[in-house]
Inverse folding.
């Protein structure tokens, strides 16, 4: 276990070796399933490198110096953190270069270019880079090509395939594996996500080693809905109208906050994808594979901020009589 973070000893060893050789890159791209600890790792790596008392190659921090206290509080002037704003489907350019009145005088790229305030380096952590638009990526391009001296940029996403070529080609890739079953079971019980090992085991089957997904799945109403949805999908011919209403009602129950509703809809689509994956174990028909692929495509449209009602209708229609289904939600 490194700094209280479990499951990523290989990544820790990689960075220790890199630091001992004095070969730390200027930009890293962390990829892996959401909820396995990539952001936590990035922030603890940053705190270790900013600590005034412990040498970099030890990859740890004292927790007592001014830099450590500021980093832990999220107020260190040399640690910049950015993520997808609430209600946004892409990382806005203002996040990187400031609003129209302060172009290139504010934003992460401007602040990242300044000299360190407390130590000898500046570190920026950008989460949710799966949601970088071409325009936002272009704002980062100069920083990636000409990083400031003694700086470190950490980008966090889920998959290399979801990154724009301009980003992927200019960063060193670091893969984070899903948590092992043993680690997962220990963490979900220790953190009160599951009441007992039986409940933890059920979560393990559906969470792909992600604590974030386990927290979402732990709610009893999700398991009840999953069973109802599975029965609906298991019909010889899916009733698209009935299924669409079922899904819409369930998503609406999540509340009015857009991000929460999107997260619930993605969870529903993941339930459906899991159903078709399980079905394929005994049913290798092309139709089943097409239905699985359609669920995964629908989840991508959620990330693109597609209209919820239109997306649900398109998705369920495609699962029903194929002749009624348009090529994409509009």
């Amino acid at each position: 276990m490194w700094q209280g973070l479990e499951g990523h000893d290989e990544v820790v060893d990689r960075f220790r070796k890199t630091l001992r050789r004095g070969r730390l890159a200027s930009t890293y791209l962390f990829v892996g399933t959401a909820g396995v600890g990539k952001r936590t790792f990035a922030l603890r790596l940053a705190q270790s490198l900013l600590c005034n008392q412990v040498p970099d190659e030890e990859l740890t921090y004292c927790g007592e110096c001014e830099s450590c206290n500021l980093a832990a509080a999220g107020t260190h002037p040399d640690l910049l953190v950015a993520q997808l704003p609430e209600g946004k489907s892409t990382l806005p350019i203002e996040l990187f270069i400031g609003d129209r009145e302060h172009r290139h005088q504010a934003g992460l790229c401007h602040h990242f270019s300044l000299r360190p305030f407390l130590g000898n380096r500046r570190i920026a952590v950008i989460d949710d880079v799966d949601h970088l638009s071409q325009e936002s990526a272009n704002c980062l391009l100069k920083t990636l090509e000409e990083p400031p001296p003694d700086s470190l940029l950490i980008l966090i996403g889920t998959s290399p395939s979801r990154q724009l070529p301009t980003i992927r080609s200019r960063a060193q890739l670091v893969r984070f594996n899903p948590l092992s079953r043993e680690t997962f079971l220990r963490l979900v019980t220790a953190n009160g996500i599951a009441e007992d090992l039986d409940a933890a085991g059920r979560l393990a089957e559906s969470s792909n080693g992600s604590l974030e997904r386990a927290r979402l799945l732990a709610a009893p109403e999700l398991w009840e809905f999953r069973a109802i949805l599975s029965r609906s999908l298991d019909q010889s011919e899916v009733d698209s109208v009935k299924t669409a209403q079922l899904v819409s009602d369930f998503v609406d129950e999540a509340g009015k906050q857009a991000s929460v509703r999107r997260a619930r809809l993605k969870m529903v689509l993941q339930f459906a994808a899991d159903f078709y994956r399980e079905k394929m174990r005994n049913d290798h028909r092309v139709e089943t594979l097409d239905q699985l692929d359609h669920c995964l495509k629908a989840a991508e449209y959620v990330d693109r901020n597609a209209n919820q009602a239109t997306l649900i209708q398109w998705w369920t229609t495609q699962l029903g009589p194929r002749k009624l289904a348009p090529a994409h939600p509009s």
